[in-house]
Amino acid sequence: MVLVPLLATGAGLGVWAYATYEPNSPLFGRSIGRGPRGRRAAYLTFDDGPNAAATEAILDTLAADRVPAAFFMVGEHVRRFPSIARRVVAAGHEVGNHTLRHRKLHFLGPRRIREELERTHEIIGNVTGRAPRAFRAPHGYRNPFVTAATRRLGYSVFGWTFGVWDSDPRVSAEEIRRRVGRRLCPGAIILLHDGDGYDPDGDRRRTAAALPGIIADARAAGYAFRPLGELAR
Ligand SMILES: [Zn+2]
Predict the structure, then answer these.
(1) Domain assignment of residue 13, yes or no
(2) Is 47 a catalytic residue?
(3) Please, are residues 134 and 232 in contact by the beta-carbon 8 Å criterion?
């Protein structure tokens, strides 16, 4: 809807910026940013792990509450915490590629982008025994070379419906829970963080602490959490 006036005014730079920085823009290939709006389903996604302090606590909550989730992993973090990555796969959650070093891809050329994606594809496959089938770009930044690389790997590309700035250290677990509750809507793909893209030891325990309340609130509002893979094309 934003796209139409941009094109009508011939604002080429605006279109480029929209396609690059808008995580759900269709211009650089389809990106899935929300599920069907007709029922109270929601999708939990965790980016930037695995992480020693947060991922396992999150897995414990998901197991106790029987909730599926998707984890978009950073290749270097998988290398550092292989057993945690294996635990995510063993629990049946979706695992996605989130690049090797959490590079912002929009200014990189085809060779670097392929390397970021393909090396991560190999690492996740080798470590967990399961090849990822989904991709999410760091910060959602993409360009046409990203599209080419994800097509080669046969990935579905995901954006998100909303994030709650849970990576900001000033935001408490209670506030993370409140923000998710406030923005929840049918089909929402919820962006949370079990890791820090640039620091394998980054602290995401507040997100882990918020999760039981997030799940309880959503269920009280009539929502069911569904596996992200059902939205894949
Ligand atoms: Zn990220």
Answers:
(1) no
(2) yes
(3) yes
